[in-house]
Amino acid sequence: MRLKTTCDWCGREFFRDSAQLKGKKHHFCCRQCLASFSSKAKNPDGYASLKDYTNISQHMTKLNEELNPDRMTPETKEKLRESRLGKGRCDGYSKIHGLAAHRVVAEQTLGRPLMPGEVVHHRDGNRYNNSPENLVVFPSQSAHAHHHSELRWFIQQIKEMEAEENAETE
Ligand SMILES: [Zn+2]
Ligand SMILES: [Zn+2]
Question: Which of 36, 63, 93, 162 is the most exposed place for a label (fewest CB within 10 A)?
Fold first, then answer.
């Protein structure tokens, strides 16, 4: 069944399959509106509820800043630079090449040890990409899981809109 709904960004009325509308917290008529809604610059309120998935790297940096406003001391920056170049002191170097390298990098970025329960997430989904820009620290596994569910929702929205657009042009 096709239902009429209103775009949360531009206010335009449009039709969508009722199955696609079920359980959605936001509705958008097109990908452009979804992108605008989730853009921090264009819509700070929407960004707060949805996160800026159109510019995920900024979001992660922001989160890390909130968790630790003064994390990037000159010493930390230098340590990070050295560890990335593989020229850090022995202890740092061996840890960096250990199993929990992403946690070590996150700790260096934060400038403090990770707390119990904190989870380090790879923004691009590649667990071998441990560059500081690619890591997000979540306070708990549930916060981490919530981020993944929002991310899945966002990707699902884009897929559905692509399917919708293809159907319309057929
Ligand atoms: Zn719209
Ligand atoms: Zn994750």
Answer: 162
Q: Which ligand is nearest to the CA of 126?
A: 2
Ligand nearest to the CA of 34: 1
Ligand 1 mean position to 74 CA, how many Å? 45
**Sequence ranges of the domains in the chain:** 2-50+160-169, 54-139
Q: Output the tens digit of pLDDT for each of the chain's 170 residues.
A: 888 888 888 889 988 887 776 766 677 887 778 777 766 666 666 555 554 444 444 444 444 444 444 445 555 555 555 555 544 444 444 345 555 889 999 999 999 999 999 999 988 778 788 889 888 899 999 989 988 888 787 777 777 777 777 776 66
Distance 97 CA to ligand 2 centre (A): 20
**Strand locations in the chain, DSSP E?**
2-6, 13-17, 119-122, 135-138
Comparing CA positions, the residue from 55, 61, 24 lying closest to residue 40 is: 55
| Short-list 142, 76, 152, CA closest to 110 | 76
CA 60–ligand 1 middle distance (angstroms): 27
